[in-house]
Amino acid sequence: MRASKLFFPTLREIPGEAELISHRLLLRAGYIRRLTSGVYTYLPLMWRVLRKIEQIVREEMDAAGAQEILMPVVQPGDLWQKSGRWEDYGKELLRFEDRRGFPSVLGPTHEEVIAALAAGEIHSYRQLPMNLYQTATKFRDEIRPRFGLLRGREFIMKDAYSLDADEAGLDASYQQMADAYHRVFARMEIPVRMVESDTGLMGGNVAHEFTLLVETDAGENTVLYCDRCDYAANLEVAHSREQDSPPPPSPEAPHAIKQVATPDMRTIEEVSDFLAVPRERLVKTLLYRAGDRVVAALVRGDHELNETKLKKAAGGAVEMADAETVQRVTGAPVGFAGPVGLAGANQDVRPTIVADNAVRGMANFVTGANAADAHLTGVNPHRDFQVDVWADIRDTQPGETCPQCDGKLLAASGIELGNIFKLGTKYSEGLGARFTDAEGNERPIVMGSYGIGITRTAQAAIEKFHDDNGMIWPLPIAPFQVLVLIMNAADETQRRVAEDLYARLQERGVETLLDDRDERAGAKFKDADLIGVPIQVVVGRLAPRGKVEVRRRGQPERHEESADAAIERVTALIKGADGGSG
User: Fold this and answer.
1) Residue ranges, the chain, pLDDT below 50
2) Is the peptide bond preceding residue 476 cis, with omega within 30 degrees of 0?
3) For 139, phi and psi rounded to 5 degrees?
4) Do residue 85 and residue 223 come from a single domain?
5) 458 plus 484 within the same structural domain
């Protein structure tokens, strides 16, 4: 491809809409353009990257025995009603009616469609196991699209679905897909960690994410990982040895409970400083709505509540209570809630008290007094209030002990690139996907779901691999493998050498971009670094001697050598990348 013919409208100014460096670079380098909030057009350079990612994924899915199909983006609403996700999925599910008045959705995922397909076509155990996948456009009506392709509304995703006869079959399919995902990202030269994650709206009881750890603010998730073993988990499900072994009750003799004035002291920090009490001697009470119920969550003052864990402990979805609910339940404004007296006679609903296990080991602590500008000291569980549910409901903290070994847990920011779920029979039960086993019994199909974000992976690679001058694409997914740059397009010798290199590299199957534009050399070098083609061959002052300069994007070394030697060097670099050695 000749740069003079390539459509890549670069920008010199930093786009105001872009918060992340990867988003800014994709816009500046002419890879994408925003159409509307969270929706982008993929320009030629980006489309080449996406096709390469898709192809790597396709090859590994095929090698794992999955079969490629394509499913509709418009799905009947009744499928989602049968699965129970019509309401549960929330406002991210774009609902609409067709001209006949039938409810439909734009598919954010395809578990319902696969289950409906299986219900109509799979009837015998002899047809199982099966794994079907697609690469398609999805739509999720994000309330706040941000970070470009990392949190968009429309995106491209590979989603696969395993269909098995039993849990043992699902275990085998799950491991097969996990192994395939490791191969996918290794081939792309993108380092990921497989981390435990929450199943969320997908259902099931086991899930993992393939996460790229980054040092920027791009990460949507916090990952806790061990400094010795392979343990890694998202913050929402992470646990430590300290959490797995709650402390015994404190041996302290209980003090008399006492109410103290704390004028306008609402936060843990304010109360701690005002009373000269360490934060770990305070217990905060956070009120949530769980349907018609109110849940009071208790955690130590120096710990953070984990809403995902609270949801499981409370037995259903929870949302932070509003100020009116807090006033009604506690009789006080926000900031002064406490567990003592929450079951008072003036309440129409008795809150369920869910306390973190760490509170078990506390005595004589400070809580809100359920009265404005007041707190209680000398509070003790069992004597002063009763806990309905004891559970691990707090965030794991860096520095705590790994649950699998004696290592310490570290924290990092992560970008989710892929996920795998053991769905079980949630969707097959709801949509009637059943089969007859060898004994003639009818049973539900056991399902798994496996996704890789194609567009998300492309941007995440740039978030990981860039410098101050632009992108640094890994060779396997770069839009072009080599850029041949003519410093002076009007110089006949330079043009002749560059054209010869261009032709010979193409003959070897090397994806080459020839920058033949009539532009200043400085502008060409800036564009070359900006768009991030990983190998640069510069044809300039050395051309009369039949020599060129070979560079690896982002590396300081420069190799001045003959055109023949340059071709051999480029070919070796590409073969090394194809072989997984970089």
Assistant:
1) 345, 580-582
2) no
3) -140, 125
4) yes
5) no
